[in-house]
C-alpha cells in the first residue's frame, strides 16, 4: 500500500538545478526515462549531453526531439553503446576518457527486463546488462569523473538506476555455494520462476554493489558521489516482455517518464550526503530491510567479491579506478 500511495500521491519537484557548462552522460537515452532526463539536463543549461544508445538512428531521433523542445542546439551528442557487449562498454568509456574534457554526471540508466532466457557474454542477459556491464562502465568512467573533480573543483556524480523492486526479490541464488552466485544466476534456466525474479534480483544487486562501493571508499575518500536511484513505476519500454500483469499495474499506477525522470535529476544533483545511498521520490531513503540486515550485508560482501573478480577478468585493473 505504501507503494500504491507513493505512485498516486507523491509530488516530485520539477528540476531547477543549474547545469551551465557541465557535461552529462545518460545511457539508454533514446526513449523513456533516459530521454526525459537528457531533456531536463539540456534544458537546465548543460553544455554537452551525451546520449549513449544502442541504435544511432533512434538516438538521432531523440536528439532532434530534445533540441526542438528545448530550443538548444549543439549540445546533444549521440554515441553508440551496446550494454550487452563488454567491448562496446569499454570502447565507449575509452572514448569518453579521451575526447571529453570533463564529465560532471554519469547517469547509468540503460537496462533490460527480459521475459525470456538469453545469454550475452556468457551470462544471463539481464545480469550482463543491468549488473556486470553497468558496473564495468561505472568503474571505467571513474578516471574522467575524478579528473573533472580535480581540474574543475567540483564533485561529479555517478548515479546507477536501481528500482523499488529490489525489495521484492526472492534472490534464491544467495543460497549458492561460496563464489557461485553469478554462476548460479547464469545456469538456472530450468529453475521454476527464475526469470520472474530476475529483473528484481538485478536491481537488488545494484543496490548492494553501490553500498559496497561506499564501504570501500567513503565520501571523504573519493571526489565522486556514487549513488543509486529509484524512479518508481513509469510508463516505458523497459518491461515490454514482462507480460500482462505488469501492463495492468502500469495502466493504473505508472508515472509518466518525465515525472519519473525528476528522480534521476535529483539524485544526480545531490552531494556527498547521498554517497552509497538509495534515492527515491527525490529524497535519500532506506533500502529494503533485507539490504540493511546482517544477512544482507554478508550477501553484499559475497556479491562484491564475485563482481570484482568478474570485472577484473574482463578488464584487468578496472576496479582499481575506485
UniProtKB/TrEMBL annotation:
<dbReference type="InterPro" id="IPR036291">
    <property type="entry name" value="NAD(P)-bd_dom_sf"/>
</dbReference>
<dbReference type="Pfam" id="PF00106">
    <property type="entry name" value="adh_short"/>
</dbReference>
<protein>
    <recommendedName>
        <fullName>Short-chain dehydrogenase/reductase</fullName>
    </recommendedName>
</protein>
<dbReference type="InterPro" id="IPR002347">
    <property type="entry name" value="SDR_fam"/>
</dbReference>
<dbReference type="GO" id="GO:0016491">
    <property type="term" value="F:oxidoreductase activity"/>
</dbReference>
<keyword id="KW-0560">Oxidoreductase</keyword>
Amino acid at each position: 500500500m505504501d507503494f500504491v500511495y507513493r505512485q498516486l500521491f507523491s509530488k516530485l519537484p520539477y528540476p531547477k538545478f543549474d547545469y551551465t557548462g557541465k557535461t552529462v552522460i545518460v545511457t539508454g537515452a533514446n526513449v523513456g526515462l533516459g530521454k526525459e532526463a537528457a531533456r531536463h539536463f539540456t534544458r537546465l543549461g548543460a553544455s554537452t549531453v551525451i546520449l549513449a544508445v544502442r541504435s544511432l538512428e533512434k538516438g538521432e531521433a531523440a536528439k532532434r526531439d530534445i533540441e526542438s523542445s528545448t530550443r538548444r542546439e549543439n549540445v546533444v551528442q549521440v554515441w553508440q553503446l551496446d550494454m550487452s557487449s563488454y567491448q562496446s562498454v569499454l570502447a565507449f568509456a575509452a572514448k569518453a576518457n579521451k575526447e571529453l574534457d570533463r564529465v560532471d554526471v554519469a547517469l547509468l540508466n540503460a537496462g533490460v527486463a527480459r521475459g525470456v532466457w538469453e545469454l550475452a557474454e556468457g551470462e544471463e542477459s539481464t545480469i550482463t546488462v543491468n549488473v556486470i556491464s553497468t558496473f564495468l562502465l561505472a568503474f571505467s568512467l571513474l578516471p574522467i569523473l575524478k579528473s573533472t573533480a580535480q581540474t574543475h573543483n567540483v564533485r561529479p556524480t555517478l548515479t546507477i538506476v536501481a528500482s523499488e523492486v529490489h525489495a521484492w526479490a526472492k534472490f534464491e541464488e544467495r543460497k549458492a555455494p561460496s563464489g557461485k552466485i553469478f554462476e548460479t544466476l547464469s545456469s538456472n534456466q530450468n529453475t521454476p520462476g527464475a526469470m520472474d525474479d530476475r529483473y528484481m534480483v538485478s536491481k537488488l544487486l545494484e543496490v548492494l554493489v553501490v553500498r559496497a562501493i561506499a564501504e570501500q571508499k567513503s565520501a571523504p575518500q573519493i571526489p565522486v558521489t556514487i549513488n543509486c536511484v529509484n524512479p518508481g513505476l513509469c510508463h516505458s519500454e523497459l518491461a515490454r516482455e514482462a507480460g500482462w500483469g505488469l501492463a495492468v499495474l502500469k495502466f493504473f499506477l505508472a508515472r509518466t517518464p518525465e515525472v519519473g525522470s525528476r528522480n534521476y535529476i535529483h539524485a544526480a544533483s545531490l552531494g556527498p550526503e547521498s554517497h552509497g545511498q538509495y534515492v527515491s521520490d527525490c529524497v535519500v531513503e532506506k533500502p529494503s530491510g533485507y539490504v540493511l540486515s546482517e544477512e544482507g550485508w554478508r550477501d553484499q560482501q559475497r556479491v562484491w567479491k564475485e563482481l570484482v573478480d568478474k570485472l577484473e577478468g574482463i578488464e584487468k585493473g578496472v576496479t582499481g579506478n575506485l
